[in-house]
Please model this.
Amino acid sequence: MAARIEHLGISVPGYQAVRTSVDVPYVGLKDAFCITRFESGRSEFWANGRVWSGRPGVVVIQQPGDVHRDVTRDGPIAYQVLRFPAHAVERVIGRIELHACLAASDTRAAAFQRLHDAVAARADRFTLECLIAEALDALAGISDGRELLTRPVRRALAMIRERVADPITLDELARHAGLDKFHLCRAFRAQVGMPPHAYLTHLRIMHAKELLAAGARAKDIAPQVGLYDQSQLNRHFRRIVGMTPGEFARHA
Model:
């Protein structure tokens, strides 16, 4: 994938910020609790069961494991992403599903806009801590406590996430979810954004990225993430991330 990523210095422990420019369609899983602001370009993207419009100033809130899939794109897209530690978010809203796409003019987005502006301006730690507290408070105001996934799909997701490094059959997954295979696959794809096998592969590559960033050697991690061998890891990693595991490790 043709992407240019700039890591922004943020002085608050546990929080990260990046600015990304992408000129090809993207599909993948979010690897953290993300508050993203579109900076330039226009796109239509699928997330959490529907298609949204991305425009400059739009703020998108997504959770770890959420699927993002571009549908249409009008040229290159630039966006800034703030990654929040899960424990900080859970203290405020618990473990409920929380997703939103807020227009630039939406008053509910004001706290997130201020935080994005401060990060871009390289604000000091005290300023960022105050604005992060405001953003977390704003998240609580957006949350309405509703579940976006049906119980069978939630059960299937839980099993996949718990057994990311283990072999899983569709029969096992369907029994655990309480649906037949056909209806599970259809419901999973409609609600999550990709079929179960694709979601599992993306999750395994996400785990591989975490291991590489922690210093693991690329040649050692295939069995740790449920892949057969180095060749399979390289193939999926390059397709999803846009580079080999070795290249990723050198830049991590």
User: Anything to note?
Assistant: The longest strand covers residues 67-84. The chain has nine helices and eight strands. Residues 14 and 196 are 30 Å apart (CA to CA).
